[in-house]
Design a protein that fits this description.
2 copies of one chain form a homodimer.
Chain A (H helix, E strand, L loop, with lengths): L1 E2 L2 H21 L6 E7 L3 H16 L3 E7 L5 H13 L5 E4 L9 H7 L11 H9 L7 H12 L8 E5 L6 H9 L8 E5 L6 H5 L4 E4 L17 E4 L3 E4 L7 E4 L4 H5 L4 E2 L6 H27 L1
Parallel strand pairs in A: 1-11, 2-3, 2-4, 5-6, 5-7, 7-8, 8-11
Antiparallel strand pairs in A: 9-10
Helix pairs in contact in A: 1-10, 2-10, 6-7, 6-10
């Protein structure tokens, strides 16, 4: 069994991006700039956003967090987004979920300039992804494709079973894996809460992507010998023995599944870090897109 | 075995829409209006477009065909589309595929006002479809969902195998069947040219949708007893014994498969006619959308 090491790949990607940033700066350009918008005080969101900022800084990006009170209205947030759309010094930005219930997340995502939408949640990017066009792909499924690629795991002709049909992971994952391009070409089965006899499907899978958000859901008896298992779950479980008061649990019962697998992602240290890596790559993509557009203008 | 009778359902839907049109006209509104744009002289395209026009007229729609020479430039076609977008007397329009090779179909589809995009090929509609939002759904997959609904065939919890990953049929079909809504909630496996051991998948399917465009590809040994088989294929095969010089063949070897099925669509008389039915429904949707928007303005 080989561990798919998100930490190692994130480090590699950060180094690659750092070199690019240095080259661009040497050519007289400014550094790429990523902005994160945070509304309210959700603990996990604070952690994610800080981690994104820290990682951005570590590859030489400019990075900042815009914090707003959770009483902010939808219109006020839309105004802030419009400012970021217009701001030429901002290459990409994200609006951290979850948003307060009085704000429509989809309306917010659709207000983001599709060329700055480094989370890939704008409907236009979703449409392009579905058609296999070049676009900003949501960071988690993109990170999984990248992880498989870096470990030279072929997806073409494989049977992939994706558990979970969320807009941000399961659904785009199922599409990416089946697109007629590198990193795709798999036969994909999308399973979810209405699936009957789920085990019958997972047992057939060459690659299982567990993205349902139920701690330790995927057990050893549900995967075939030699399977590749990708654990997207990252749930906080109360744990008084930890300083933070919680531990992180994946959707996979690691000890049982790992002994049957050829490859598996750990939690933490797997998909979560690849999500950050993809966000950094998407920001570089947005930066280079703008650089290309500006040089065309000149 | 029950035949899923597209002709019967198309007739039902036309009658329902006719009644609606009469009611709207009685209220002082104009009839819905569908325009088809045809570039070049492709024989099959001429047939499809004429059939769409005839069916539109039969439920009281205004309908017209705009014909252009195949030497038309992309820019000229974009200008025509902009005119149709601006024309308040046009509720919906389609640009018949295939287009001449010097014109980018996707650029054309993306130029269509998403609210008049009754074929559902605009990237915004694709994105909305993928997210499960209200939108214009491509007519063929929409017609299949409608056909299953009218025959009270439950999809929730069923295993559906879709063969073919085209943007206009297989891909949106696979998404629709797995969305968390009525007509969806199925476990869906999307198979395609890179799928290995296809038969292993189709043999497990409660519902098979064959949309690969290979005549008589799906044979009796590939489906399980009692399966529901939807045949999307419609290929012209030379046949000198026919007045037209050709016959239409589906993707399913009908005689072999029909005896094992619980339900099956014939070709012709199945999915092809449901595609027309959905186009008529989408046109009514576009009409009512505009009516609602205008009454909001007043």
């Amino acid at each position: 069994m080989t561990l798919l090491d998100g930490k190692k790949i994130l480090t590699e990607i950060r180094e690659e991006l750092s070199i690019k940033v240095q080259q661009y700066i040497a050519q007289g350009h400014r550094a790429p700039c990523l902005v994160a918008v945070l509304v309210g005080n959700d603990g996990a969101s604070q952690t994610y956003v800080s981690s994104k900022e820290k990682n951005s800084a570590s590859c030489g990006y400019q990075s900042r967090i815009l914090r707003f009170d959770e009483s902010m209205s939808e219109e006020e947030l839309l105004n802030e987004i419009e400012k970021l759309n217009q701001d030429d010094t901002v290459d990409g930005f994200i609006v951290q979920s979850p948003l307060p219930s009085h704000i429509s997340a989809q309306r917010i995502f659709d207000a983001i300039d599709p060329n700055k939408d480094v989370d890939g949640f704008n409907t236009i990017n979703t449409g392009k992804l579905t058609k296999g066009m070049d676009c900003f792909v949501p960071a988690t499924p993109l990170g999984i494709i990248e992880l498989l690629k870096r470990y030279q795991i072929e997806t073409s002709g494989k049977h992939c079973v994706v558990i979970g049909r969320s807009d941000i992971v399961g659904r785009p994952m199922s599409i990416l894996l089946s697109l007629p391009k590198a990193g795709g070409n798999a036969t994909v089965t999308l399973c979810h809460s209405r699936t009957q006899n789920l085990k019958q499907f997972t047992l057939q899978a060459d690659i299982v992507v567990a993205a349902l958000g139920k701690p330790e859901f995927l057990t050893g008896d549900m995967v075939k010998e030699g399977a590749i298992v990708i654990d997207v779950g990252i749930t906080r479980i109360d744990d008084p023995s930890k300083k933070s008061g919680f531990r992180l649990s994946g959707d996979v019962k690691f000890d049982e599944v790992a002994i049957k697998c050829s490859y598996i992602t750990p939690v933490p240290g797997g998909v979560g870090l690849m999500t950050i890596a993809s966000l950094l790559q998407n920001t570089m993509k947005a930066y280079e897109l703008k650089l290309g557009n500006n040089s065309k203008k000149n």
